[in-house]
Amino acid sequence: MNVKKGIKQLKNGKPILIYDSSDREGETDIVAPAKHTNPNTILRMRRDGGGLICVAIPPKAAEKLNLKYTSDILKQTGYKFNKKVPYDQRSSFSIWVNHKDTYTGITDKDRSKTAKELSKAVETTINKENYNFEKQFRAPGHVPILRAAKGLTKNRTGQTELSIEMAQKANITPAMVLCEMLDNKTGEALPKEKAIEYGEKNNIPFLTGSQIKNY
Ligand code: 5RP
Ligand code: CA
């Protein structure tokens, strides 16, 4: 039921909430289609979410656009970070970018422009058209790109994969802007119950990782 509501919401360009699981991060992200991002989307994320605002993209598009994992880039440059992420096999971070038509890159207007343009880049590669990424973006920038794992939730069940899987179910461009919800009182991840409450108050469907995987 929730997943159905979530699909409808995404089709309408609106946000959903995705909680991964209690045995992983135990976090809820606000997730919205990057294609329909506007400055208000970013404002909601930093005001009601408060975590990091990122854009998740599918593995094929990342490969086509030559967007490698940051961990692989660092390895190639000689860094030897041995400590693993405590809750998963690897982090999904790729590079951080700003679209060329932004100024500092951090404002709501700038970050929404970058997110929207990332969606365009993904859509172009999906349509098998050429896309010159380096001509359109600057790096480093203020919007981290998250690269979903091959096979999506079969291999990793972070919000990166869960949000791309939801985009696929909704048949929308699979580029999703997302942000973790933090508790303004404790600074910890917002407890699941409070995230559900927020969703009910604001008419935003709350979905869990297992609901998405089992749909
Ligand atoms: C970027 C993150 C977040 O946890 C985000 O939800 C995506 O990561 P993951 O797929 O690992 O859950 O690390 O702020
Ligand atoms: Ca997460």
TrEMBL record:
Superkingdom to which the source organism belongs: Archaea
Keyword ATP-binding: no
InterPro entries recorded: DHBP_synth_RibB-like_a/b_dom (IPR017945), DHBP_synthase_RibB (IPR000422)
Cofactors named for this entry: Mg(2+); Mn(2+)
Subunit structure: Homodimer.
Function: Catalyzes the conversion of D-ribulose 5-phosphate to formate and 3,4-dihydroxy-2-butanone 4-phosphate.
Protein name: 3,4-dihydroxy-2-butanone 4-phosphate synthase
Organism: Methanonatronarchaeum thermophilum
